[in-house]
Automatic annotation (TrEMBL):
Keywords from the named record: Lyase, Pyridoxal phosphate
Name of the protein in question: Selenocysteine lyase/Cysteine desulfurase
Source lineage: Bacteria, Pseudomonadati, Pseudomonadota, Alphaproteobacteria, Rhodobacterales
Lyase among keywords: yes
Domain of life: Bacteria
InterPro entries: Aminotrans_V_dom, PyrdxlP-dep_Trfase, PyrdxlP-dep_Trfase_major, PyrdxlP-dep_Trfase_small
Organism annotation: Poseidonocella sedimentorum
UniProt domain Aminotransferase class V: residue ranges: 25-393
GO molecular function, one term: lyase activity
Amino acid sequence: MALDLEFVRGQFPAFAEPSLRGQAFFENAGGSYTCAPVIARLERFYRERKVQPYGPYAASRLGGEEMDEARVRLAQLLGVARDELSFGPSTTQNTYVLAQAFGQMLAPGDAIIVTNQDHEANSGPWRRLERLGIEVREWRMDPGTGHLDPVALEALIDDRVRLVCFPHCSNVIGEINPVGEICAKLRGAGIWSCVDGVSYAPHGLPDVGALGADVYLFSAYKTYGPHQGIMVLRRALGEALPNQGHYFNEGALYKRLTPAGPDHAQVAASAGMADYFDALARHHGRADGRAAHDLMRAAEVERMGPLLAMLAGRNDLRLLGPSDPEARAPTIAVVPARPAGEIARDLADHGIMAGGGSFYADRALEGIGVAPDPGVLRLSFTHYTSAAEIEQLMEALEAVL
């Protein structure tokens, strides 16, 4: 069943906002539009529940229940236990705390593997563990294509490797990595896996339970929600890592790696993400929100086709990552002949909202021979982007390139 775009866009107040009329949003990888259920829940919490939660009086009790609802429903969508999901102020912050815990658990001489395809949030915190005597090995992508080859990973693994950190897909390369296959091999070798899903999750929440990742991280504000980082930490690893929270919270799995108190209102509002995914699935005759993944993904693949064909066919720019829409997410970066920031400014005059720069992926750009400054022009969209907006983008590119 084709995605009902009119229904989808009706769930996002931004598309009815007069100040945004006529502008096509192509910087979704930096943060998506927020869906109406999230906004409604956030406003309700601030109006009616802005008290200390989990107390005996009604406003407090209801506030706590809404926070719990967010955790329970998102965990169900992700195929994990409710206490294996936790909220933090951002994915970067969650990763730093996670790395701190690993630094306390690992011993000098142990090794971890990182990639040069990652956003800095899933690279820098792990590389800093070298200060503790932990060896950091780099799984490098192909310098010509940006492809991250699982065969190259196998050559890095020995009995000293304890953890491998890699992205579900890069925020500048866009190619979708075979997470399930990689995690299965790591699990068979007794190695933990940490997957950065920030650039993948906006295109359909994955079944993390089926993927087999020990850690899966993504950002709610890029998946139509509030500015929170969401971390799935599977029980076996979560209980093995040293507690990073208050000592009296050590027995609560979802509190062990979140030392700061959560933003109560934003956690509660995150249930609105589940509201949206459920509504999307039901509208299309599906049982629950887990079906939203395939609906969203199919629409994006269809939209990507004409744009990728156009970009791949030009001789005045370099397309990063695959030109096959089935192999990638719609986070599309190109290296133009003149500075990307200039082109982004020119595109704004044509009603195109896009950006230029390195997007915190300096190592990835350097790994494929691109200078982080001026970087790339990034054109990122999601399932709510229309065919007309793709056409508007292509016409604008023809005019400014």
